[in-house]
Write a structure and sequence with these properties.
Neur_chan_lig-bd; extracellular ligand-gated monoatomic ion channel activity; Acetylcholine Binding Protein, Chain: A; six-stranded antiparallel beta sheet; binds 2-acetamido-2-deoxy-beta-D-glucopyranose; signal; alpha+beta; Neur_chan_lig-bd_sf; elongated; 185 residues; Neurotransmitter-gated ion-channel ligand-binding domain-containing protein
Length: 185
């Protein structure tokens, strides 16, 4: 009877080791290769090779609204009315780049997660240069999706609300509005 119990425990442990899901292995490997001793997220990809890093951006706009703002100035005896347009936009702002330090030669599964995943790696310092306000959607959790592929590709998507100035408009009917995106690094 004792033998049976011992054998039972062994089979149970063995099953746990060999049923190690590739997705679990990918997360564990990701944590090793982004550990503080081996990965510095303040150093951007390709910096050592003096090469740039290409960040591809797409936006999935789910809602937008024009907010016309009228400003009146007096110049000598004339009243000048300027119509400024602002726009409020809700979107999934998606960025994609490749970080060669995250390449895994042994694993094929991808690491999928949110804030805790993206906080371990370098991220671009992209910003909207004509924005008046930017809000991230953070309740009940950050509306953030991150994916690190085994080939080093990082995919970072976050739902945000941006308010930005369109520039002076001649006609209120004009529905053109430029959102400017810049990066400093
Ligand atoms: C990168 O640039 C620096 C300074 O211009 C130079 O000293 C270094 O050799 C370059 N490295 C590579 C890998 O080209
Ligand atoms: C970014 O876009 C370019 C051009 O479409 C493509 O060649 C490149 O592979 C893309 N990079 C990533 C990381 O998706």
């Amino acid at each position: 009877m004792k033998y049976i119990i011992v054998l039972g425990v062994f089979i149970c442990c063995a099953k746990q080791i060999y049923s190690d899901n590739p997705k679990v292995a990918a997360v564990k490997n990701f944590k090793v290769i982004t550990g503080p001793e081996v990965y510095d997220k303040d150093i951007r990809p390709n910096l050592g090779e003096n090469a740039s890093v290409q960040v591809n951006i797409t936006m999935h706009v789910t809602d937008y609204e024009f907010n016309p703002i009228t400003r009146t100035f007096s110049l000598l005896l004339c009243l000048i009315v300027v119509i400024l347009q602002e726009m409020t936009m809700v979107m999934y702002f998606r960025q994609k780049w490749t970080d060669p330090r995250l390449v895994s030669n042994t694993l094929t599964a991808d690491v999928i997660g949110g804030k805790s995943i993206i906080e371990r790696v370098w991220t671009p310092d992209t910003f909207f240069s004509n924005s008046l306000d930017v809000n991230i959607m953070k309740y009940p959790t950050r509306n953030l999706f991150a994916k690190v592929l085994h080939n080093g590709e990082v995919y970072y998507s976050e739902r945000i609300k941006v308010v930005f100035r369109c520039g002076p408009q001649i006609s209120i009917k004009s529905d053109e509005c430029d959102l400017e995106i810049e990066s400093c690094k």
